[in-house]
């Protein structure tokens, strides 16, 4: 029983991490029809920004208490700024040229890890997290890492915030209307480009937050972390339905649990194969994923 509880909580924590990455990816694709292959780079920037600040390089930041919260805010802010810069300098000039858009974001996705390796080396760096989040708590006989709960809580907050943004705010409604009929929205005097930049900023913010909290999950950061997690983020987006934030949430939980249980009860590494098989089977039955809509 304790093993099942531990695997379930660990799977939920992993699924929450996948959702933090995939939700921004799904949001950007669903609203802007942009496949952002540089999304993993934004995660890496957020992770390294948090690691740098928590290591004592930012005044007031540190590995514990309010200092760690400040480090996470700093890393998230840096990732958000990088997302805005990416949209303005790379994506915006290529909105009508999707092929070049994909090549450009792939290039950025390869360049950023190389840049991080050049500055801090290619070896993994120990993540300086709070001691309170490095412990465990008892649950039905299992000792569950506290940081899994932090990831789950963060994912729930992001899910609620994104749904409120899309359905209850003026900016969310403007973006949705701009996707349906950009010419009409522009004729009303609304600058759709600013709304699209906002969407990219939100996506980058969530990805950077995933990178910051991913350091707690893995206990370290390395330049290739964002690239490897991006693969599973794409699996989540396709499984949940392209452009569906709610679908991404459900798919993240399913994929996290399948991966953890398969890795434990079969040979190590077969969890990744199980996820791919699950995706293939789902697409045979439901080609558009679980939902296939933005909601």
Q: State the helix count.
A: 11
Fill in the CATH topology.
ABC transporter involved in vitamin B12 uptake, BtuC
| Count of the domains | 1
Largest beta-sheet characterization: 2 strands, antiparallel
From the helix content, strand content and strand pairing, which structural class follows? mainly alpha
Strand order of the largest sheet: 1-4
* Broad shape: globular
List low-pLDDT spans. Answer: none
Order of helices and strands: HHHHEEEHHHHEHHH
What fraction of the residues are assigned to beta strands by DSSP? under 5%
- The CATH architecture classification is Orthogonal Bundle
Q: Give the rounded overall mean pLDDT.
A: 84
Overall helicity: over 70%
Features:
mainly alpha; two-stranded antiparallel ribbon; 295 residues; 4% strand; Branched-chain amino acid transport system permease protein; ABC transporter involved in vitamin B12 uptake, BtuC; two-stranded antiparallel sheet
Structure write-up:
The chain has one domain: Orthogonal Bundle (ABC transporter involved in vitamin B12 uptake, BtuC), CATH 1.10.3470. The longest helix has 31 residues, at 2-32. The model has no long low-confidence stretch (mean pLDDT 84). The protein has helices at 2-32, 39-57, 65-91, 98-120, 146-168, 170-180, 182-187, 192-218, 225-240, 245-265, 270-285, and strands spanning 125-126, 136-139, 142-145, 220-221. The chain contains eleven helices and four strands. Helix content is 75%, strand content 4%. The radius of gyration is 19 Å and the shape is globular. The two termini are 36 Å apart. Helix 1 (2-32) crosses helix 9 (225-240), helix 1 runs antiparallel to helix 10 (245-265) and helix 10 (245-265) packs across helix 11 (270-285). The strands form two sheets. A two-stranded antiparallel sheet has the order 1-4. The protein has 295 residues and is mostly helical.
């Amino acid at each position: 029983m304790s093993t099942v509880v531990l695997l379930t909580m660990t799977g939920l924590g992993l699924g929450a991490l996948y959702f933090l990455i995939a939700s921004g990816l799904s949001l950007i694709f669903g609203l802007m029809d942009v496949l952002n292959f540089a999304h993993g780079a934004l995660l890496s920037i957020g992770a390294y920004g948090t690691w740098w600040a928590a290591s004592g390089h930012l005044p007031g930041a540190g590995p514990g208490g309010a200092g760690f919260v400040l480090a996470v805010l700093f890393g998230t802010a840096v990732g958000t700024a990088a997302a805005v810069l990416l949209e303005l300098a790379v994506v915006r000039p290529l909105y009508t040229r999707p092929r070049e858009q994909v090549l450009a974001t792939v290039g950025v996705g390869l360049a950023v890890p190389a840049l991080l390796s050049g500055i801090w080396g290619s070896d993994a760096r120990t993540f300086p997290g709070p001691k309170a989040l490095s412990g465990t708590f008892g649950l039905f006989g299992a000792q569950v890492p506290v940081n899994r709960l932090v990831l789950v809580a963060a994912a729930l907050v992001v899910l609620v915030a994104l749904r409120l943004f899309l359905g209850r705010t003026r900016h969310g409604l403007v973006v949705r209307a701009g996707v349906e009929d950009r010419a009409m929205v522009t004729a009303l005097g609304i600058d759709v480009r600013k709304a699209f930049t906002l969407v990219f900023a939100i996506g980058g913010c969530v990805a950077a937050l995933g990178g910051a909290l991913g350091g707690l999950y893995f206990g370290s950061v390395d330049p290739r972390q964002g690239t490897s997690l991006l693969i599973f983020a794409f699996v989540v987006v396709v499984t949940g339905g392209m452009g569906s934030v709610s679908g991404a949430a459900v798919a993240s939980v399913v994929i996290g649990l399948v991966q953890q249980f398969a890795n434990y009860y079969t040979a190590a590494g077969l969890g990744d194969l199980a996820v791919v098989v699950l995706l293939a089977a789902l697409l045979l039955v439901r080609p558009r994923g679980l939902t296939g809509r933005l909601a």
